Amino acid sequence: MPLPGCQIEVWVNAPSAFVRISGRAAAEGSRDFKLLITRLRDRGITCFGLDLSRCLLMDSTFSGVLAALAVAPLKFSIHGANTRVLDLLDNLGVLPLVTVVDSLQAGPENGSLAPESVQVGGHSKDEMATCCLEAHRFLMALKPENAAKFKAVTEILEQQLQEPVAGT
User: Fold this and answer.
1) What is the distance between the alpha carbons of residues 79 and 149, in angstroms, rounded to a whole number?
2) How far is residue 15's CA from residue 35's CA, in Å, rounded to a whole number?
3) Could you give the domains of the chain?
């Protein structure tokens, strides 16, 4: 049985926002997550709570996007993440950039705000490749051990982005 795709919901209560990631936090949802956080940052949101209690797994692209976003002045707290996700974030060097919180007490269910669902997908092949490449380059710069892990991935993505589009 395939795992469910990425679902993103957000509750905004300036200057903070609470984002729930459900299903697979993978490349398919990483660009939408990045666009959401960037849009909220441009509106003055600087503190983000991430509810990962329904996140089954996270891939390196999503982890790299999170890491690249988790730099000053933005602050991220991770709530309810499973061991598999925390281990990945730790192994890739992302965990020191975020605050891990065991409970969801500060979550939106304790308030009266209604969530906004974020549309996931619909990006071009080049947009996805660029997002994946940027995420993996950031992870490689973040922790030297990541360079060997992602060298082949970044080379493939670079090559893909250099290929001319068919029909042009």
Assistant:
1) 27
2) 18
3) 7-121 (3.30.750.24)
- Please give the chain's pLDDT, 168 residues, in tens: 455 789 999 999 989 999 999 999 999 999 999 999 999 999 999 999 999 999 999 999 999 999 999 987 999 999 999 999 999 999 999 999 999 997 765 556 545 567 888 888 889 999 999 999 999 999 999 999 999 999 999 999 999 999 876 554
In degrees, rounded to 5, the angle at the alpha carbon of residue 113 between the alpha carbons of residues 67 and 26 is 30
Q: For the chain, give the number of residues.
A: 168
* CA distance linking residue 113 with residue 63, whole number of Å: 27
Number of C-beta neighbours around residue 12 at 10 A: 16
- Distance from C-alpha of 138 to C-alpha of 68, rounded to nearest angstrom: 6
